[in-house]
Amino acid sequence: MTFDPARGVTVLVGGFAADNRTNVETWEWNGTTWRQAKTKTKPTSMTFPALTYNPFHRVAVLVGEVGGAGTPIRTFAYDGTDWHVGPSAPRTLFGHQAPGVAFDEARDAAVLFGGAPIGLPGCPLLVSIEHAQAMTAIGKTAGIVFPIPLDPSQLGVTVFAQALVLGREHATSNGAKLVVGN
Fold first, then answer.
1. What is the DSSP letter of 89?
2. Where does the pLDDT of residue 157 fall: very low under 50, low under 70, confident under 90, or very high at 90 and above?
3. What is the DSSP letter of 166?
4. Which residues on neighbouring strands pair with residue 3, listed in sequence order?
5. Domains in the chain and their CATH numbers?
6. Rounded CA gap, 50 and 64, in Å?
7. Is the dihedral of CA 19, 22, 25, 28 positive or negative?
8. pLDDT at res. 119
9. Model-level pTM greater than 0.70?
């Protein structure tokens, strides 16, 4: 559930129907009554979706896995009239069952947090959908280019990275902390 201040309504989407199947109904509360929104397009049925509001685009942003833990994370945007398909999250974010999502106005980004983590147990770091990137192994190694702008204001900035490696017989995960400096 999220509040849409541009329209003055609380938006609710998803949940479980009486037969315990997930549904994708959209409802709005105007402070007095609930109204089911009749949209042309519906988001894909999701397991434990999360909803936040993007004030810059004036849309509710829905994030969730389309088939349970370990399946693709999809995004949808609701403008008060219809749902619009957003980008799929990179494979590095799979495994976040029942995440939370909040909108970070300073970065103009939805930030996914919590849920069944892909990181190390107890890792409190946030995962931002637009900054996750998948890597493909070539032989026994994989790499990624991590550009850091040549800008003195970046000195002292802390960057966190999380890696998840899935093998045929095992899975491993590890994190790193990098402080930009001389």
1. P
2. confident
3. E
4. 10
5. 2-135 (2.120.10.80)
6. 6
7. positive
8. 47
9. no
